[in-house]
């Protein structure tokens, strides 16, 4: 089985590449280093240095004997995308420089993933819109022209739904109106431009599925935490990139880093903002189970990819408790929310579909969090307090 990972250098992309490679799949990764380059441009700092994608593929090969083919290329360029289907791929690193043929499954992570980034100013808003929508549209046209059977797994976001005052279903909602019924995409209302591009992705994919009978899984993922996976444990140089800054760091990773370095935990506003969370290892499981059970042709299958829900206050409480038990002096501080979002709201999403296809959830227990504290502690000297909060306003 041949898997192509778009965005293979990112927080989720690289662990996904190792995961599938370790399980016998032929894996090719593509990335344009957008995440790394913007991290450098915005001077966000990272917990530890991460070898380049090519270096990581070489390390992986040395340690396991397995090959992850690497392409450094920009998927907003249609010809780069199309080369994976019609040949002419320019590998940046591969043991054998031969075309592996049309991928059976494509995992689409090649997107700018940060909400604050998309609202820094018009330039970063355009970058987010341009990158995310062009990559998705290039993918849809390549599938239409060359590979209508290839299964695409796209990572969307729970943020597409926002925080409505009704239960959130898995992607679809049956509506009865004036005595008639029909099924529609669940109403979406994002609270950042980044999240808006994910809504637009879903719309592009739904259009392509209806027109060209494609098979697509859209995973509505919540904020992810963690850095170690089974496959990275063999060598620290294989650990995924880890951000704790305001722009690219997700909240659990941020709170642990803040606790370790003695920076008061930054609870935005009232702290009642509730989201669905998952461990990075569960992202891998969800993608794997989706790959093993592809939807039928002409189906846009949507799963809510979360394992449990927490409010910001609850996360601060857990980080505080675990930090204190490990001897850190942890403080929690409520600060004026730089974002426009509901700080107290109803939140009741359904998340059963992935469990039904075989995913085994891992939860954010005190032990799991303590494990993360221990990894962050090893790199404490690298933590920069100046990047933790800059106050990017909506
Ligand atoms: N928050 C704080 N303090 C902080 C950081 C965040 O109170 O220091 C709050 C935010 O205001 C928000 C919540 O915590 O209410 C989650 O924030 P986040 O930065 O962890 O996550 P978010 O910006 O929503 O984006 C992340 C990923 C994105 C993914 C999304 C899933 O960066 O790629 O799509 O989580 S979801 O949140 O379900 O939309």
Automatic annotation (TrEMBL):
SUPFAM superfamilies: NAD(P)-binding Rossmann-fold domains (SSF51735). Residues 3-294 form the NAD-dependent epimerase/dehydratase domain. Pfam families: Epimerase. InterPro entries: Epimerase_deHydtase (IPR001509), NAD(P)-bd_dom_sf (IPR036291). Belongs to the NAD(P)-dependent epimerase/dehydratase family. This is UDP-sulfoquinovose synthase.
């Amino acid at each position: 089985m041949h898997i192509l990972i778009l965005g293979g250098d990112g927080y989720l992309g690289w662990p996904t590449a190792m995961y599938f490679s370790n399980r016998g799949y032929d894996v090719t990764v593509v990335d344009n280093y957008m995440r790394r380059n913007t991290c450098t441009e915005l001077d966000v700092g990272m917990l530890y240095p991460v070898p380049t994608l090519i270096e990581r593929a070489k390390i992986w090969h040395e340690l396991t004997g397995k090959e992850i083919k690497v392409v450094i290329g920009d998927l907003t360029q249609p010809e780069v995308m199309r080369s994976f289907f019609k040949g002419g791929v320019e590998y940046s690193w591969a043991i054998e420089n031969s075309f592996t043929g049309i991928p059976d499954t494509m995992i689409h992570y090649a997107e700018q993933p940060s909400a604050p980034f998309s609202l820094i100013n018009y330039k970063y808003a355009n970058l987010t819109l341009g990158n995310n929508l062009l990559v998705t549209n290039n993918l849809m046209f390549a599938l239409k022209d060359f590979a209508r059977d290839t299964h695409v797994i796209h990572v969307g976001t729970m943020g597409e739904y926002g925080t409505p005052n009704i239960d959130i279903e898995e992607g679809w909602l049956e509506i009865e109106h004036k005595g008639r019924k029909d099924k529609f995409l669940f109403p979406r209302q994002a609270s950042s431009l980044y999240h808006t591009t994910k809504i637009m992705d879903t719309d592009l994919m739904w259009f392509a599925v209806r027109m060209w009978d494609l098979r697509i899984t859209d995973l509505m993922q919540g904020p992810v935490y963690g850095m170690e996976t089974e496959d990275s444990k063999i060598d620290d140089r294989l650990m995924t990139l880890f951000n704790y800054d305001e722009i690219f760091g997700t909240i659990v990773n941020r709170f642990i880093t803040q606790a370790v370095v003695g920076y008061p935990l930054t609870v935005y506003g009232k702290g009642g903002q509730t989201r669905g969370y998952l461990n990075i290892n569960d992202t891998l499981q969800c993608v794997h189970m989706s790959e093993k059970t592809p939807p039928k042709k002409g189906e846009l299958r949507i799963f809510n990819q979360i394992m449990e829900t927490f409010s910001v206050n609850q996360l601060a409480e857990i980080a505080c408790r675990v930090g204190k038990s490990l001897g850190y002096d942890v403080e929690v501080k409520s600060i004026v929310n730089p974002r426009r979002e509901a700080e107290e709201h109803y939140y009741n999403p359904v998340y059963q579909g992935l469990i039904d296809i075989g995913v085994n959830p891992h939860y954010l227990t005190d032990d799991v969090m303590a494990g993360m504290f221990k990894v962050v502690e090893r790199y404490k000297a690298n933590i920069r307090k100046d990047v933790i909060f800059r106050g990017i306003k909506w």
